[in-house]
Amino acid sequence: MKLIYPLLLSGICFSAKAQLKQGDWNFGTSTNAPFNLQLKKNNAGLRSYDFSFHPQFGYMLKGRWEIGGGPVFGFNGSRFKDGSGNTIWKSNSQSVGASLFTRYYFKSSGKLVPYLVAGIQYTHEKGTSIDLNSTKYSYSQNLWQLKAGGGLNWFVSPRTALFTELTYTGDWGSGNGYLNGLNLQLGIRFYFGKKKK
Q1: Which of 78, 85, 106, 169 fits a disulfide with 147 by CB distance 3.0 to 4.6 angstroms?
Q2: Confidence at residue 23, expressed as pLDDT on a 0 to 100 scale
């Protein structure tokens, strides 16, 4: 914790103004790794993990609009134990897919550049689950996701930005109906293009 404050202060001191312009490309990546731990003293409860990796490429259009997309990779699993500590159910899955997005930036230059974002994502998921009787089940499904929200680029150099993005997401295709909620992502973006004369 003591190390975080000096890093934040140095980042603020060295942050730089950016100049977004038509024809620029960017590469960014983000991760979403929530860990849901619900453990009791008698060792009963649910343990789960959900990790996804999203490399994306974007292209700046005229008028501060950006379009782009990229692959999506995900890994998740869960395990449930009873009051005696016995595993009565566990599952693991892997997914791969692709996403498309568009962003609108409120300004084209500055250290902090807020934006709106909307996108769609498709993933194909395969997984297995094992119950108390050691019976193994396998499944395969196609998942869709729509998202819309806002974000903020914090430029630590003219070509590098840290970002945070909060979106409302809706998922369907899992057999559990329509699922929705808020999703927070953190990441980094690198911008490429000709320097402005």
Answers
A1: 169
A2: 86
Residue 96 one-letter amino acid: V
Residue 13 CB neighbour total at 10 angstroms: 7
With contact defined as beta carbons under 8 Å apart, do 26 and 158 qualify?
A: no
Dist. CA 156–CA 189, nearest whole Å: 10
Helix, strand counts (H, E) of the chain: 1, 11
Instruction: Using the predicted structure, report yes or no on whether residue 4 has a pLDDT greater than 60.
Output: no
* Alpha helix positions (H), the chain: 4-14
Which residue(s) pair with 66 in the sheet? 60, 103
Q: What is the pLDDT of residue 193?
A: 77
Q: Which of 7-11, 12-16, 73-77, 160-164 has the lowest mean pLDDT?
A: 7-11
Query: What's the CA angle centered on 122, arms 121 and 125, to 5 degrees?
Result: 130
How many Å apart are CA 60 and CA 19, to the nearest integer? Answer: 11
Structure tokens at 107: 């300004």
Q: End-to-end CA distance of the chain, in Å?
A: 42
Predicted local confidence at residue 95, as pLDDT: 93
What predicted TM-score, i.e. pTM, was given to this entire model?
A: 0.73
